[in-house]
């Protein structure tokens, strides 16, 4: 196993020029649900420096629900669901991922049972997944009714975001 990076050394240059964020002036009550893929990092930090960000594999709404409910208590009323092109969650199915994990752990019943309990919520159709996540949030009883929910696709190659719902 590789050794963990020493983040205190890696962040020294960042710390030397650091300015604390002015959240009071810039907070707009916006939240973005987006993938964990590192290719979206620069978009998030450049375009959304003061948004509340919920990240999970695929940027799926169900996995972000807990974060959305908590964020509504700090006045989030604008939630953008962003899925991106070439997302890893488009490249396998939940069943195929379960099978792979079981094959990697042959005969391990605890692993087999645990992996069956996870809904990986893979993506078959990028715009369709955005629309279904927007519908899910708009219909969810724990999402406040005055919340604006929008859906977007972020193009990794072009660095461009397009509204789909
Ligand atoms: Zn992704």
Automatic annotation (TrEMBL):
The keyword Hydrolase does not apply. This is Carbonic anhydrase. Zn(2+) binds at residues 35, 37, 84, 87. It is an enzyme of class 4 (lyase). It catalyses: hydrogencarbonate + H(+) = CO2 + H2O. Its cofactor is Zn(2+). Pfam families: Pro_CA. Belongs to the beta-class carbonic anhydrase family. Binds 1 zinc ion per subunit. Keywords: Lyase, Metal-binding, Zinc. Reversible hydration of carbon dioxide. One of its GO terms (molecular function) is zinc ion binding. InterPro entries: Carbonic_anhydrase, Carbonic_anhydrase_sf. Its EC number is 4.2.1.1. SUPFAM superfamilies: beta-carbonic anhydrase, cab. It comes from Dendrothele bispora (strain CBS 962.96). It comes from the Eukaryota. SMART domains: Pro_CA (SM00947).
